[in-house]
Design brief:
The complex is a heterodimer of chains A (663) and B (429). Chain A is of the alpha+beta class. Chain A has 21 helices and 26 strands. In chain A, strands 12, 13, 14, 15, 16, 17, 18 and 19 form an 8-stranded antiparallel beta sheet that branches. A 5-stranded antiparallel beta sheet of chain A has the order 5-6-10-8-9. A 5-stranded antiparallel beta sheet of chain A has the order 22-23-26-24-25. The longest helix of chain A has 20 residues. Chain B is of the alpha/beta class and 429 residues long. Among the domains of chain B are: 109 residues, Alpha-helical ferredoxin (Fumarate Reductase Iron-sulfur Protein, Chain B, domain 2), CATH 1.10.1060.10; 117 residues. Helices cover 50% and strands 7% of the residues of chain B. Chain B is built from 22 helices and 10 strands. In chain B, helix 8 packs across helix 9. The longest helix of chain B has 18 residues. The relative contact order of chain B is 0.11. Classes of the chains: A alpha+beta (663), B alpha/beta (429). The interface between A and B is large, with 38 and 33 residues.
Chain lengths: 663, 429
């Protein structure tokens, strides 16, 4: 597209001519990221301060110029390719750590701060930032949130969105937003996670920091089969042991890595686990004993603890060098990112091997065994077109195999353009429609990173919808009827919070079934109307625990009222009825999901303004966990919530978004 | 696809000898998966904060040029800036999973565009060392004499050296040590000789050791004297200057001369005091790719090349040195391998806990004339180094080449006088 001269002049006067570039070379150098996608933008804007973002977006909005935020561009999904042309907004200049508050255990950072720079700054103070993507030396914190990145420590500490407490963002029309998880409303930070810059630009974040673990013990274990290694992780979870990291490799990868790094891994094993425990010395000693016992029970050939820091370094050496070892084999490496429920990991891997064999493609498998997240590293030469097509086809089949195994096409890398076609394989039409409407609400002109995440035309390709439960279908029908008759809807659960007796009330009390307590994946699936007391009595029967408090009210109500923001990170899947009466489903029993907008976080704390939650899947634990702290903050309205409300409920039948006190 | 080599086979390299084997420049460039691991290692990216000035950006730019998607004429100015902003430090190669030699790619592009990075008079002067060593020697001596007698100072006062094309004189004057005695006299004073009977080692002094820092040459000779009878090859160019700044044909010529002379001396081990020269000569076979005879000869020759640390004993006679020290990794194209590992080992043995390990984020001094190419960038890069030296409170920084020591001392004197830089060989000199 041609950039209008007026827009250029406005940008020149705002950013200076040296920061507004239109020469071919600069544009082509910003046409790619770590994926195969390569699209030439029409304009490059180098931003040096975050105050410029809002006016820049206003100018782009006025002239209807699409834009793509870009920092280190290390994503594997093609999220930084400017598919519609337009502007690339380079955010690497926003690289200041603004504040580190060790007393509150938080840090304010700009979006372009390199993750490792923050780690280094924190390490000096005896703290650390838990998310550790493999590219932490290069990737930025803003990028991590936008791509919903996590890392090896995710199993114990959670992914990036769980560590961002507040964020400042700018909507595509230039409206600045301040978002806080404890702010009372929907968890918009969670919604921005994995949005890949399609909802706006993240400018700064307040992240949670943790004291450095003083005692860490690392172990290496090898197994005769992948299934045994996965079973080990499941058994550990069942005993309430959550390792700091559980990294795994298959035999092919093991051989490649050992040839390159000489880390001393036994190459005859079919699977290798690197496990790390942290805590007090006595706790580690106890857990290490149990760990060895579990490994031996699962036929571990070798169980080797690192006795010295040097030995620990050596154990990690191979794992850290894995990408390097694989990258040497061919000019290009395409990294897949499937996630399945942990129990289905052996089945998924079996399917993956079959696909690789059938397609004649070479790939090494690395996985975060604790999360059921695996990364096939396909090697090829992008100059060889048939090779590329074969690899792309194999990747597509691998992703579909993940969905068939009850998983997702992306656990932590995002969708971008590379995997967007497979979104239709994973989600049904109402859910894809919901994604489209979330995007439309935040970005009505489709300017922010257009053509990403959603398949171009999905109406016919979308996965057929599963017939909802009878009670849910009745609730959806009731919503549709009220929409036709324009009758307002007040959603209640056990009516503990609203204590209303209005005829407009639509209760989820009939949705009172506990659908599944999965003691392999350690998840529970409940209907929204299940009371917390009933949930707890059922969990106690199975000797498991959850982070919801044992109080009055329903599970749906506790999640929707915004009183337990710490619980949001535990929710893995959701089913909900939107104000148009459609039933949408997102997530499941898998621990990570980067495919599509985080619908769970949209409904979290939304107080029934955006629809009715009918079902939740969340984590349970073998040992008691502290219940989520109750926060009683009044919901803070913001432009994004209002825009979402207008888009999803244009007739305003569901409760209104709270008024802005500042007008 | 246009491989640069075919446009001018004499002036360009046929293939690069990479860690993953011999490969054409295009293949080497195409090996970049754009993962970005190199990005934060690049000093120029840390300063400019733009992809265009990053190793990944540079590789992609070369690839686009080779694939005909970018035109060298239309983007000449930007290309010049992209090439000349690269410090050729090799930190990106260290960070790269595939060990892609980005610095070598940049040099190929520089040769393809016939770019002259240094100011013309300085370039001509330094080029004389290969083409006419006698004249080079005379001119340098004359210049040093002019400096000793205060003529340079006078010129600076009059402002003549601020004129375009002459400003490098100011910088050279700033960098050079106050005393630059003549090598022969200096060695005589130290009771060292340039020649010996039945030599067991040939010493190829770098330009700085021969003309600017005779103490460096003396330290090398003193250290070597413990085990060897050393023959010094005076005014012998290694061809490195031509390889980096000049014409590849002349570089090949210089290396051929060196190999012939080396053969005449009976293939004795050849010692150098500069890590830059060592790394260059170790890869000499790359220059003759395609010419089997010379490639083989160069391979044999490069196996005989030694770096100063190879003659240093690991255990020191100097007891109880309790000052914090660190190693400056600045060298051309490379940041890992023999000289670095050995130097690190020596320093660790000597200084034990007082040896300060460098982080991957610690920049190196931009050496080998980079300060004459892009002075502003050199200053900012050097400041990154000085900042990290100050943070670790290192009192002495050991370098692997005399030029790095000169450059770093200049910046330390200005910004952190508590520390000083010295060549690692000075430990045993």
């Amino acid at each position: 597209m041609k950039i209008p001269q007026t827009a250029l002049h406005q940008l020149y006067s705002l950013l200076g001519k040296e920061n507004v570039l239109t020469d071919e070379a600069s544009l082509l150098i910003h046409a790619y990221d770590c994926s195969l996608s390569r699209t030439r933008p029409d304009l490059l804007l180098n931003l040096q301060c975050e105050e410029h973002i809002a006016p820049v977006l206003q100018i782009l909005y006025t002239h209807k110029i699409p834009f793509v935020p870009r920092a280190s561009a290390t994503n594997h999904a093609g999220s930084c390719a400017a598919l519609n042309g337009g502007a690339i907004i380079n955010l690497t200049g926003l690289n200041r750590i603004l504040q580190i508050n060790t007393r509150e255990q938080t840090a304010w950072v700009q979006a372009g701060v390199i993750t490792a720079d923050l780690q280094n700054a924190l390490n000096k103070l005896g703290f650390f930032y838990a998310p550790d993507p493999a590219s932490e030396r290069v990737c930025t914190l803003g990028g991590n949130l936008a791509q919903n990145a996590s890392g090896a420590r995710c199993m114990k500490y959670g992914g990036t969105p769980d560590h961002v407490l507040e964020a400042c963002a700018v909507l595509p029309d230039g409206t600045p937003l301040h978002l806080a998880r404890n702010g009372g409303g929907p968890d918009f930070i969670g919604l921005l996670a994995g949005s890949e810059g399609t909802l706006g630009i993240i400018t700064r974040m307040k992240v949670k920091i943790l004291p450095l673990a003083k005692h860490i013990k690392t172990f290496l274990a090898t197994f005769p089969s992948l299934a045994d290694s996965v079973q080990t992780v499941t058994d550990l979870t069942a005993r309430g042991i959550i390792p700091r990291c559980v990294e795994a490799m298959d035999q092919t990868t093991l051989q490649t890595v050992e040839d390159f790094s000489h880390a001393g891994y036994p190459t005859d094993a079919q699977a290798l686990l690197i496990l790390e425990l942290d805590g007090t010395p006595s706790q580690i000693a106890q857990e290490a004993k149990e760990l060895e016992e579990v490994c031996r029970l699962n036929h571990a050939h070798c169980f080797q603890p690192a006795k010295t820091p040097a030995e620990r370094q050596k154990l990690w050496l191979g794992r850290r060098a894995a990408y390097a070892a694989i990258a040497r084999l061919a000019p290009n490496v395409m990294v897949g990112d499937g996630t399945v429920p942990r129990s289905n990991l052996p089945l998924a891997l079996e399917k993956v091997y079959r696909i690789l064999q059938e397609r004649g493609v070479h790939a090494s498998l690395l996985f975060h065994a604790g999360d059921g997240n695996f990364h096939p590293h396909f090697i090829f030469d992008e100059r060889n077109k048939p090779d590329v097509l074969r690899v792309k086809k194999a990747l597509q089949e691998v992703l579909r195999a993940c969905v068939d195994c009850g998983g997702t096409i992306s656990g932590e890398h995002g969708i971008g353009v590379e995997k967007r076609a497979e979104m239709a394989y994973q989600y049904d039409l109402p859910t894809l429609d919901l994604f489209a409407r979330i995007k439309r609400a935040a970005d009505p002109l489709n300017l922010a990173n257009p053509l990403k995440i959603l398949p171009v035309s999905y109406a016919e390709k979308a996965r057929p919808q599963i017939t909802p439960d009878k009670t849910v279908a009745e609730l959806a029908e009731a919503v549709r009827t009220r929409r036709q008759t324009r009758t307002p809807v007040i959603v209640t659960g056990n009516n503990t919070r609203l204590k209303t007796h209005t005829r407009q009330m639509l209760s989820t009390r009939a949705l009172d079934k506990i659908l599944d307590i999965d003691l392999t994946n350690y998840t529970v699936t409940v209907q929204a109307g299940v009371t917390l007391k009933k949930l707890w009595s059922e969990l106690k029967k199975h000797h498991v625990y959850c982070a919801l408090p044992e109080e009055t009210g329903t599970a749906g109500g506790a999640f929707s009222c915004g009183a337990y923001p710490d619980f949001y990170a535990h929710v893995l899947g959701i089913e909900a009825v939107t104000p148009d009466g459609s039933v949408v489903r997102y997530g499941g029993k898998f621990m990570k999901n980067s495919a599509g907008y985080h619908v769970t976080r949209l409904f979290a704390g939304a107080r029934g303004t955006l629809g009715i939650i009918t079902q939740l899947t969340f984590k349970i634990f073998a040992k008691p966990v502290p219940p989520a702290a109750k926060k009683s903050a009044a919901a803070e309205p913001n432009a994004l919530w209002r825009a979402l409300k207008n888009e999803l409920d244009p007739d305003g039948l569901f409760p209104a978004v709270p008024e802005d006190k500042n007008g | 696809m246009v491989d640069f080599y075919f446009s001018n086979p004499h002036k360009l390299l046929r293939a690069l000898h990479t860690e993953l084997g011999e490969r054409a420049v295009y293949d080497s460039v195409a090996h970049c998966t754009r993962c970005g691991c190199c990005q934060q290692a690049c000093p120029s990216l840390l300063i400019k904060k733009q992809e265009t000035f990053s190793p990944r950006g540079r590789n992609q730019m070369i690839r686009l040029l080779m694939e005909g998607k970018l035109n060298t004429r239309a983007h000449r100015l930007l290309l010049e800036e992209v090439i000349n902003s690269c410090t050729l430090c090799g930190r990106c190669i260290q960070a790269c999973a595939g060990k892609i030699p980005t610095a070598e790619h940049i040099l190929e592009l520089r040769r393809r565009l016939n770019l002259r990075a240094l100011p013309a008079p300085l370039h001509r002067l330094l080029a004389l060392r290969t083409s006419s060593p006698v004249w080079f020697s005379r001119l340098v001596r004359a210049a040093l004499l002019a400096r000793r007698t205060g003529i340079v100072k006078l010129l600076r006062l009059t402002g003549i050296t601020r004129m375009k094309g002459l400003s490098w004189i100011n910088r050279a004057d700033d960098l050079l040590p106050a005393q630059t005695p003549e090598l022969k006299k200096y060695l005589l004073n130290q009771k060292l000789s340039l020649e010996s009977h039945n030599p067991t080692l040939v010493y190829l002094p770098s330009m700085e050791a021969e003309f600017l820092m005779p103490r460096l040459a003396a330290d090398v000779l003193k250290t070597a004297a413990k085990k060897h009878r050393t023959l010094v090859w005076r005014n012998q160019s290694s061809g490195l200057f031509e390889y980096v700044y000049g014409d590849l044909r002349k570089s090949r010529l210089a290396v051929r001369r060196l190999i012939r002379r080396h053969e005449q001396t009976g293939n004795l081990p050849l010692l150098t005091d500069s890590a830059d020269v060592f790394i260059f000569l170790r890869r000499a076979a790359q220059l003759f790719s395609g010419n089997k005879r010379w490639e083989e000869k160069a391979r044999c020759f490069s196996r005989r090349v030694l770096f100063a640390t190879d003659i240093m004993p690991q255990k020191s006679s100097v007891p109880d040195i309790k000052i914090p020290v660190r190693l400056d990794y600045s060298a051309l194209f490379c940041r890992e391998g023999e000289p670095f590992e050995r130097a690190q080992k020596i320093l660790k043995t000597l200084f034990k806990k007082n040896f300060v390990e460098c982080l991957y984020t610690d920049a190196d001094t931009p050496a080998f004339g980079y300060g004459f190419v892009r002075r502003n960038l050199a200053q900012e890069t050097a400041l990154q180094t000085v900042r990290s030296i100050a943070q670790t409170q290192a009192a002495t920084v050991f370098t692997l080449s005399g030029l790095s020591a000169l450059e770093l001392n200049y910046w330390l004197k200005r910004f952190y006088p508590a520390a000083q830089a010295d060549h690692v060989i000075s430990l045993h000199g």
